[in-house]
């Protein structure tokens, strides 16, 4: 199992717009070999620094399945307009990938 996460610092006041983009997207993840699940997670708001933390979280059968997704036309289509939303973020998303060591 492989878990891929992108952490986003969303500018305070932009949370609703950020969530609407994710909820309104046309996802093709379910078409990809090895894709298991997706979640958009909302974390704490850091009032002092002016952002709310979010993470997009996908689970794949293997790293190779995730890697194939990142090289696919579906990936390019899903990220084609990502730059249009830069005003919502405090910097670029931070990627974190994890290979399962143990789990049910």
UniProtKB/TrEMBL annotation:
Keywords: Monooxygenase, Oxidoreductase. The keyword Oxidoreductase applies. InterPro entries: ABM_dom, Dimeric_a/b-barrel, Heme-degrading_MO. Pfam families: ABM. Residues 2-98 form the ABM domain. GO terms for molecular function: monooxygenase activity. PANTHER family: SIGNAL TRANSDUCTION PROTEIN TRAP. This is Antibiotic biosynthesis monooxygenase.
């Amino acid at each position: 199992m492989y878990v891929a996460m992108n952490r986003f610092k969303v500018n305070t006041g932009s949370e609703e717009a950020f969530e609407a983009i994710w909820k309104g997207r046309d996802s093709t993840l379910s078409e990809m070999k090895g894709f298991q699940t997706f979640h958009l997670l909302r974390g704490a708001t850091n009032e002092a620094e002016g952002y709310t933390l979010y993470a997009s979280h996908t689970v794949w059968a293997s790293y190779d399945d995730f890697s194939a997704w990142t090289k696919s036309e579906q990936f390019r289509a899903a990220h084609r307009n990502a730059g249009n939303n830069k005003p919502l973020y405090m910097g670029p998303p931070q990627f974190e990938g994890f290979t399962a060591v143990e789990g049910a």
